[in-house]
Specification:
By secondary structure, this protein is mainly α. It folds into 2 domains: 63 residues; 85 residues, no CATH class. Helices cover 68% and strands 3% of the residues. It is built from 5 helices and 2 strands, in the order ββααααα. The chain has a two-stranded antiparallel sheet. Helix 2 packs antiparallel against helix 3. The chain is rod-shaped. This is B box-type domain-containing protein.
Length: 195
C-alpha cells in the first residue's frame, strides 16, 4: 500500500500534519501556527473595521444635522408658503377695502345729488305729492343702504377650508431607491457563503 505524503504548503520541507479547511492545504505544526496567526491578524483588522463602522452608524443615526440641505429646503418651502399666504391675505384685505370704499363713495355721491335735488325743490317750490312720495322712498332707501353698509355680511369671503387641503401632499419626504446597492451586497454575501 502506497502512503501519500502531504508536504507543508509553506516550507515544503516538513510533513503536513495540520489541514486548513479554509484554504484546503496542509501545514507543518510551525507553519500552521504562523498561518493561524495571519488569520487572527486579518480577523482583528475586520473587527477594527466593524467597530469603526459601528461608531459611524451610531453617529449617523443619532445626529440630525440642522444644517442639512434637506432642512434648508424645508425652511425655504415654509418661507415661500408663508409669503404666498401673506400676499393672498393682503390682496384680499385690499379687495374688501375697495368694495367697502366703493359702496361708501357711491352712497356719499348719491346722497350729495339727492341733497342738491332737495335744496332745489325747496327753493323753487316746484314739487307735488308724487315728488314727496319719491323723496320719502329715497330716504328710506338710503337708510336701508346705510344699514347694509355697516353690516360686514354684505361682502362674502370665499376661503379654501384647511381641512379640505391635503397638507401632507404639499410637501413630504421619501427615500430614493437604494435597492440595487443593498441587493448587490446581499448577493455578494450569499456568494461568499456558498464558496
Amino acid at each position: 500500500m502506497t502512503k501519500t505524503t502531504n508536504r507543508c504548503s509553506m516550507c515544503q520541507k516538513e510533513f503536513g500534519t495540520s489541514y486548513c479547511t479554509g484554504c484546503g492545504v496542509y501545514f507543518c505544526t510551525k507553519d500552521f501556527k504562523s498561518h493561524r496567526k495571519i488569520l487572527f491578524g486579518e480577523m482583528d483588522v475586520i473587527i477594527e473595521h466593524h467597530n469603526e463602522l459601528h461608531d459611524k452608524i451610531n453617529k449617523a443615526i443619532q445626529h440630525d444635522d440642522p444644517n442639512s440641505p434637506l432642512f434648508e429646503q424645508i425652511d425655504q418651502w415654509q418661507n415661500m408658503m408663508t409669503e404666498k399666504v401673506n400676499l393672498v391675505a393682503e390682496h384680499t384685505r385690499q379687495q374688501v377695502s375697495q368694495l367697502l370704499n366703493s359702496k361708501r363713495i357711491k352712497i356719499t355721491n348719491d346722497f350729495k345729488r339727492f341733497s342738491q335735488e332737495l335744496v332745489h325743490l325747496k327753493e323753487t317750490e316746484n314739487f307735488v305729492e308724487h315728488d314727496l312720495t319719491r323723496l320719502k322712498y329715497i330716504i328710506h332707501q338710503f337708510n336701508h343702504e346705510l344699514k347694509q353698509l355697516t353690516r360686514p355680511f354684505t361682502i362674502e369671503l370665499h376661503t379654501e377650508q384647511s381641512d379640505r387641503i391635503v397638507w401632507s401632499q404639499l410637501i413630504y419626504a421619501e427615500e430614493k431607491s437604494t435597492y440595487a446597492g443593498i441587493h448587490q451586497r446581499e448577493q455578494h454575501v450569499r456568494g461568499m457563503m456558498v464558496k
